[in-house]
Structure formats: C-alpha cells, structure tokens
What we know:
46% of the residues lie in helices and 15% in strands. With 286 residues, the protein is an alpha/beta fold. Strands 1-2-3-5-6-7-8-9 form an eight-stranded parallel β-barrel, surrounded by seven helices. It has a single domain, classed as TIM Barrel (Alpha-Beta Barrel).
Amino acid sequence: MDIGIGLPNALAGVRGRALVDWAVTADDRGFSVLGTIGRIAFDTHEELIAFAAAAAATERIELMSSVMVAPVRQAALLAKQAATLDHIAQGRFRLGMGVGGRADDYTVMGREFEARGADFDALLDALQASWRGEALDGAEVAVGPPPFTAGGPPIVLGGGAPAAVRRVGERADAYLAPPAPPEAVAGLYAGVRAAADAAGRPAPRLLGARYFALGDVDSEVQHNVGSYYGFGGPDFVEQVINAVLRTPEAISETVQAYADVGVEELCLWPMAADLSQVDALADVVL
C-alpha cells in the first residue's frame, strides 16, 4: 500500500511558502501523494494554487485535492484550472472532489446548498466534455488547454452518503473513503463496487485517509480540530481528536489495518504544522 501525506493548508498559522517547503520535503522522503483539505468559508489556502506551487517545486510526488468542495465552482474555469495544473505537474495531478457538508461554503459563493448533488453531476459532465475538446454552452471553441493526461486528470470522488457512493461507482477513477475505521471503509467500498458493476464499469481504486500528529503537540491538535470541526459541537470535536493517530504504534497498526481491507493508498493528513512532522511520519511508514 502506498502512503501519502497531506499539506497543512487548512491548519492555523500556516502561510504560503511553508506549503512549498512541506511539499519538497515530502517529495524527497518518498511519499506517494500530497493531499489537501479544501473549503471556501474557512482560513485555508486554496488548493489548486497551492498545488501549482508544489508541482513546480517537486519532481515525483503526485498531487490530489482530497477533497475539493466542487459544486460551488464554475465549470469552465475549473476545467481550465485543472487542465493547466495537469500540465504543470506533467500528469501528476488527480482532481479529488466532493459536495461538502457545510452550507456556508455555498452561501459565500452564491450557490444553493440544497442543489449540490444535481449541481455536482452537471459539473462532472461539463469537466469531462471540456477535457474531450467539446465546446461548453455559450462558447464557440473548447475551453483550453487540452489536458496533459488523455481524457483529463483522474477524478477522485469522496463521500459516504448513498448518493455519493453511487456517484463514485458510476463516474470516478478512484474513491477516497472518509476517515473512518477500516471495517466501515470496506462496507462503503462494497457499495461503490455494486454501483460500478451496475454501471458496467470497473471498480474505482480504493483510497483512504486519516489524521495524524506526532510528538508533544496536544494543544495544537485540539485547536486545529476545534476550529475546523467546531460546527459539529463539542462531542463531535472530541470524537475527531480521539481519532487522530498520535503515536508511531498507532500509525503502523492503522496502516496495516487499511491494507488488510484492500486500501491501495492511505493519505495521512497532518493536525500539526511544523515541517518536522513530515520526517517524523516518514520514519514510521517509509
């Protein structure tokens, strides 16, 4: 199983250049992919811009938005942005998307939260049409550039609701399961496989994700989890904090458990921002 690492683009106090340094170190240490946590109405660095900088500074590591809140994005612009990044990264970019679960991301973009599922399907149609070289509605020619990767960058979809699982099976190249226990991930993936079978498609790759933080960083973990997940109330925040992998032993056991249920790649998202976290994690898993 491959092991990736998240960029700390959603953590308190992290600013631009630190993301590039993190990407370069992750590339040097041999992680398979850089992930990002994406929101609009939060103090996060925008993931496609962060990835453009990371792509230019790295040689080998892949890049995956994991996952971008996609239905709030304008289709033609996202098609152009993703194809541009696909060229800068020379095919190392995967476009990971989901609907998100917070209405404020939609409100600030002038979009309807209740329409997010239908809007997402329409967005996927437009992205794939654009990458096939088709002109979108209102345009005389196709939105360019044509992507570096034939057919466009791989589409990775997340989510655990029944509609999301069905969409993954019908449309995705890979499924990024939520940061749930391995047995729950296996159950969700069974639904993805069934949807793919019904659509006459091969099952998407199975990817996983979990949070980690190594060393004496308790207060930072509590602050980062609390600020990002506070909308869910104190019990939910405590649940997320308790699920953060805090020791080398916990990380090693989790990696093996995910491998045992068929996860092909596990991306470990940081909940502490110091660059030393990259080396600390690499020393455990690589």
